[in-house]
Amino acid sequence: MSKAGDTAKAESEGASASQTSTLTSLKSTISSQILSSNMSKAGATPKTESEGASASQIRTLTSLQSTISSLELINSLRRKRDLMSLLCSYPLDMRVIFDDFISKPYCESKLPLKLEGLLPKEIIRDAENGDRSGSNFIFGDANLDFIPEAILDMAADLAVHQLMETLISICKSKNPKHAKCIRLSTRSDVEKRTVMEKVTAALNDKHHSLDILNSFHGHLTIDATGYPTSEAEKELKQHICQLLQLSTIKYDDILCTLQIEDEMSRSRYLVILVDRDGEEIVDPQKVGLYGTLLTGVLVLITTDSPSSQQAKEGGLKDGLVNLEIRTKEHLLPWVVFCDTAGKEFVYSSDAILTTAVRIVEECRSHLHAILLVAKWLKNHQDVRMWELALHKLQFTNPSHDVINFHGLNSIMINTFLNLIWDGMNKTQQNCLLSCSGIPKIRDGIVDHELMNHWMSSLFVDAGETEKNLRQLVENSIFLQFDGVGGRYIWLPEETYQMLEWIYTLYPLFIEKSNLGLTEPPNTDKWHNAVRIELAGNKISELPESPDCLQLKVLMLHRNADLTKIPSSFFYHMPLLCILNLSYTSVRELPCSLFFLEQLRELYLKGCECFMKLPPEIGNLEKLEKLDLDETQITHLPKEVQKLTNIQSLTLCFYEYHVKKNMPYSCSMIIPSGVLSKLNRLEHLCIGVNPDDARWNKNMQVILPEILGLECLQTLSIYIPQLELLKLIPARIFELDFRFIVGRHMQRIISSIPPATDVKFKQSDCSLKFVKGEGVPDEIKTVLRHSKALFLDRHFTLKSLSEFEMKNLDQLRVCILAECKEMQTCGGGAKDEDDMLPHLLFLSIFHMKNLRSIWEGPTSPHSSFGMLQSLSLQSCPRLVTLFSLDFLGNLSLLKKLIVKDCPKLSTLISHESSKRNAHAFLPKLSKLLLLHLPELSSISNGLQIGPGLKEIAFYDCPKLHSLSRKELVSKELTAIKGETNWWKSLEGRTPNFNLIFSPINEEADLMTQLGICDDDGIDNGPGDSVGKPSQPTGIATCVSNSPTRRGKYRRRRISKTWEVETSYLTEDGYAWRKYGQKSLFNNKYLRHYYRCTHKYDQGCLATKHVQRIGEDPPLYKTVYSGQHTCRRRP
Question: Where would one find coiled-coil regions in this protein (predicted)?
């Protein structure tokens, strides 16, 4: 406020009195005179006085025009300052609204955007224009007589209250530039005297006396209405001197003024000056009460009638007034109420008008409460509705007596709880309660983001979501404003706090996962819950029949002690959509489950005690997803064919005999005709025991049914016979397929590390070829469309080249295990085609005859050109890894692991050890060399890994030194190895000693080196290989609920990385496109995406995708930030 005062003061000093007096008369002629002066062209000669304005007049008029522009800006600033001061004196917490505005310079031309939802547009417009008639836009001066007397009296009370609040604020402030002059304008002389009495009473109140009067040296109340004569100012100064106990010389008017000014500058006084009646106005400057050295506060109580406005030109100038309080402007609550409820209805009858007055009085100037009540009564002419609203406002809600609302306004509590909350439907209540987990909604959130949050967390469809939001905005429960990016929705602080309190009593989301609970929480709070998470606990028993009429999601997975569900458990869950019982010990499903008509997703993954799917499963006709992976069921009941809405089906069958040599309990694993009825099926995964003899025959029956599913997008299946591949049409290879082909055999212990197995299973379009012989044409056909290959125990293959390079072109992941005849991955081919040009991940295990990665003549430059991760394990005949020529192909390699290769002496062949000026493997960041007893040199003198960050050695006894000629990286941050080996190492540098950390030989080696969880390719969303195309929809949304407060705090995104691929693939996360733009000299658009869970979980991961090549196609994806959202169940 001090800035505005300083600006106003400067204005008063900049414009002389004569200039100010002529502004009004000259303003209308300035434009025409300047135009007639013919000054539009440079160098033009001004016209003579007879023809227009002289040059001096032109300069004067230009100066005055600039002054007028400044005055208009200052008037606008004053008006906004006064309006904001008025609003801050009302009960609604305006701090959130004004925080941004206060921090901005006073040259801002717009009021806070959030006022758009609270005040009529006309008032905001007039305030920005500097117009002080905003309160008249409905009534007009002629209609003020129709405002009820009680409302006028309330306006006077509010004006006095604003004055008291301002004085208290000044007393508490340490700012020396506080408001020094406050003008309180009343409508008439009668109201002026009434206001004076109210001010006197307020100052005599003990609370105000302590807060205000004790902060001043003295308090003067001067009533100028008792000095009506022409000598009033002289008599008034004599009276002031007496009050100040100053010695005076009679008739020495100048000395008296100086004495008053001197006292006012030395001591801090609060002066209440009541102006004279009529047109005779007191000028505080002339009686010594206002000057540049004034240290106290002057409050001038006057009138703003048309006659007194003209007289003010001889009194205190507007520029010297730091704050103006007007009783007429405190009609704002009545104006807002009438404008919202409808003036014609308010004034339609005396009974309604009387009740309306009592309602506004009861709301005590709380603008949001007034808006809510007015919207509730809008267009109602029945007086009983108005009386009911008044009764609800006066009724103290019992909860207010029991629970402390942390100082929330009681009228807002009664308005919201008694009048609004009970009148909303359950869906609207849940929508509001879900907002208690979005703290940023107090500042404003774009409307479509709020609707997305409701749809994902509450399972409300788009049409109903839009309808509910529209109704909540129309009823002013939500307020809105137009901002950058669209329409913003916000909740006032008081409403937000009440919703938080209601949420504690009736939570929508009960999140008690991973807490070690042995029993579920009290069921009293389950009644209103939409989502209950009890995963990862030790719960063994569930309540019999909890009342969960609103429940839509129930997560009970990973409760291993849960063996039985009460038969009536689900009877009172009519809206349940998602049920997760994965990794529990349930043996059977209760009968009440099959009455869940709304159930859409059922998860039983990992329930190893679950052995039979009952026929009643066919009752769940709305089921869209069924996951029976890792269960012990032996067959599928034919009633599954009734699940015509199912979109995702994951099955796992167990080979079960009653007794040894006894026949199967069911001859068919999947009955004929079941799958063909599931015509909406998009994702099908069937896992079987490879030793189950039923599958060979069953597969011949069901394969045509599977191939006839028109909506199929993902297919994962075991194909025991190569001949069956001939039945698969070409269109199936356009899907995301996962085929296991060959004489598959179930293994107790896998020959490959778990992380590698996960990498393969997460890859789309994959082929696992087991115990193969030769290179069948059927396998070549599948390979041609595959992005991942797992070659397991092939009997005859000596090189991948035998599959023909053109068939390997699409591979991104390749795993080779126990192929006893394989000698090399590539090389020796007759043609010169590139080999594996798009391969990103290569792992080789237990290859007893492997001698090299590449063999023969120089490889084409693009062979292995995109490889990022390479690991080799248990290759007893491997002597060297790379030739110098082949090394140049691995410019993108980031991670290299070599383990248990007893003959390997160096990574690069000896004959290629000549010195080279540049470093190889420029992208290498992690190097692990383990159990290599013959390793004597890392790279045989060649510089490698200029970006190497981590290196580890274990059981490499012949490696006696780390050569700085080989390890040239300046980014090395960690060296790991055995303590004894490190102590005996030659030529250790001080820098190496600082970053060395010993390996604990008693702990798991692979875990210490971070191999189990790291695949070498970019972590997080930057994984180029991606993850399987999971079924999206309701499961994706529900598995991640909005976390409670604090989750939405802004995080700093610190990591970015980029991946170049020749294809676009899913990366296992849900993305939402939010924009695109064209780039200079590039005909392809860049597309921008953010994580779908940005607002419900605060995940800030983003990416943008740009096509950078045409033939062949090449795409560049840049990721930013790690995903913090929870993964799907």
Answer: none
Q: What is the chain's length?
A: 1129
CB-based contacts of 326, cutoff 8 Å, min separation 6 = 82, 132, 159, 184, 185, 186, 304
**Domain spanning 1025-1120 has what CATH number?**
2.20.25.80
In the chain, where the domains are located: 132-341, 424-503, 611-740, 743-867, 1025-1120
b/e per residue 1096-1113 (b: at least 16 CB within 10 A) = bbbbbbbbbbbbeeeeee
- Which residue spans within 509-624 are E strands per DSSP? 509-511, 531-533, 553-555, 578-580, 601-603
Distance between CA 457 and CA 625 in Å, rounded? 18
Per DSSP, 663 falls in state P
pLDDT grade for 743, boundaries at 50, 70 and 90: confident
CB-based contacts of 660: which residues, under 8 Å, 6+ apart? none
- The 3-state secondary structure of 1041-1077, one letter per residue: CCCCCCCCCCCCCCCEEEEEECCCCCCCCCEEEEEEE
Per-residue confidence at 710, pLDDT binned at 50, 70, 90?
very high
d(CA 1029, CA 1070): 10
Q: What does CATH list as the number for 424-503?
A: 1.10.10.10
Question: What is the Rg, in whole angstroms, of the alpha carbon atoms belonging to the chain?
Answer: 41
3-state SS, 189-243, equals: HHHHHHHHHHHHHHHHCHHHHHHCHHHCCEEEEEEHHHCCCCCHHHHHHHHHHHH
Handedness of CA 745, 749, 751, 754 (dihedral sign): positive
The CA-atom distances, in angstroms, between 96 and each of 112, 443, 595, 1093 are 10, 7, 49, 26
pLDDT for res 560? 92
Q: Is the pLDDT of residue 355 over 90?
A: yes
What is the Cα–Cα distance from 463 to 349, expressed in whole angstroms?
40
C-alpha 523 chain-centroid distance:
31
The reported pLDDT for the residue numbered 196 is 93
What is the spatial distance between Cα 487 and Cα 448, in angstroms, rounded to a whole number? 9
Judged on CB neighbours under 10 Å (0-12, 13-18, 19+), 547 is middle
- In the structure, what pLDDT confidence band is assigned to residue 61 with cuts at 50, 70 and 90? low
Backbone angles phi, psi at 601, to 5 degrees: -135, 130
Specify the fold of 611-740. 3.80.10
Tell me the whole-structure pTM to 2 decimals. Answer: 0.69
Residue of 292, 289, 285, 293 lying closest to 312 (CA atoms): 285
Taking the C-alpha atoms of residue 1021 and residue 1069, their distance in angstroms, rounded to an integer, is 7
Task: Tell me the C-alpha distance between 15 and 20, whole Å.
Answer: 6
- The edge-to-edge listing of strands for the beta sheet with 1082-1091 is 1056-1061, 1113-1120, 1102-1110, 1082-1091, 1071-1079
pLDDT digits (tens, 9 = 90+) for 257-308: 787 777 777 788 888 888 888 766 777 777 767 665 567 888 889 987 554 4
pLDDT digits (tens, 9 = 90+) for 834-867: 788 899 999 999 999 999 888 766 666 778 989 9
Contact between residue 787 and residue 768 where contact means Cβ atoms under 8 Å apart: no
Q: Is 419 exposed, middle or buried (0-12, 13-18, 19+ CB in 10 A)?
A: buried
Our measurement of the distance from residue 385's CA atom to the centroid of its chain's CA atoms, rounded to an integer in Å, reads 41
Give pLDDT, residue 131: 58
Burial class (CB in 10 A: 0-12, 13-18, 19+), 792: buried
Q: What is the DSSP string of 837-849?
A: TT--EEEEE--TT
What value, to the nearest 5°, has the Cα angle with vertex 389 and ends 387 and 395? 100
* pLDDT recorded at residue 143: 52
Reported as a single tens digit per residue, the pLDDT across 1043-1078 is: 333 333 333 334 566 776 655 656 667 777 777 777
Of the two residues 59 and 872, the one the predictor is more confident about is: 872
Instruction: List the end-to-end C-alpha distance of the chain, in Å, as a whole number.
Output: 56
- Give the CATH number of domain 132-341: 3.40.50.300
Work out the average pLDDT over 205-219: 76
Average pLDDT score over residue span 470-499: 89
**According to DSSP H, which parts of 37-109 are helical?**
55-88, 95-103
